[in-house]
Amino acid sequence: MVHTGTIDGALFEPTLYIVKGMCILDNDGNRLLAKYYDKDVLPTAKEQKAFEKNLFNKTHRANAEIIMLDGLTCVYKNNVDLFFYVMGSSHENELILQSVLNALYESVSILLRRNVEKRMLLDNLDAVMLAFDEICDGGVILDADPTSIVGRAALRTEDVPLGEQTVVQALYNLMNNNY
């Protein structure tokens, strides 16, 4: 999916690097999970947290689905006690960003068995992190089909040899006597 755009007659070079960041915040605006892909945009954790706090303050009571903030186009969705955000540059097509947001939300919804709330997300954080990676890599959209995203994320969390598991996966399997 190569994207070109124009702003005030200036032509932008085509790029695959559409997504600048994705994050999930709780109902207090605290980060649960976030990935930023462009080092020129929000390069430090301090800047990211300040941006997320500002973003949450502008969106947690709004009924819209899109906001322009600090030169970024942000699409968002909330459910129970979670807020999902996808950010792109100011000239990015909102429909593309919305498709990424829908893929993220639906994938998380499937992974959490339609129980999309903070506690379930934290209990399944490893699978949600894998879904993030299956949707976008370095700002390039890899997949927007929730079923295939979940299929690959689920495959990577089950039946993985001990040496290849994350610490969270290994501890979970040890606690549940899977070894």
From TrEMBL:
GO terms for biological process: intra-Golgi vesicle-mediated transport; intracellular protein transport; retrograde vesicle-mediated transport, Golgi to endoplasmic reticulum. It is found in: Cytoplasm; Golgi apparatus membrane; Cytoplasmic vesicle, COPI-coated vesicle membrane. Signal peptide: none annotated. It holds the Pfam family Clat_adaptor_s. InterPro entries: AP_mu_sigma_su, Coatomer_zeta, Longin-like_dom_sf. One of its GO terms (cellular component) is COPI vesicle coat. Residues 19-157 form the AP complex mu/sigma subunit domain. CDD domains: Zeta-COP. Its main location: cytoplasm. It is a peripheral membrane protein. It comes from the Eukaryota. Keywords: Cytoplasm, Cytoplasmic vesicle, ER-Golgi transport, Golgi apparatus, Membrane, Protein transport, Transport. Oligomeric complex that consists of at least the alpha, beta, beta', gamma, delta, epsilon and zeta subunits. Belongs to the adaptor complexes small subunit family. The coatomer is a cytosolic protein complex that binds to dilysine motifs and reversibly associates with Golgi non-clathrin-coated vesicles, which further mediate biosynthetic protein transport from the ER, via the Golgi up to the trans Golgi network. Coatomer complex is required for budding from Golgi membranes, and is essential for the retrograde Golgi-to-ER transport of dilysine-tagged proteins. The zeta subunit may be involved in regulating the coat assembly and, hence, the rate of biosynthetic protein transport due to its association-dissociation properties with the coatomer complex. This is Coatomer subunit zeta. The gene is LOC113391855.
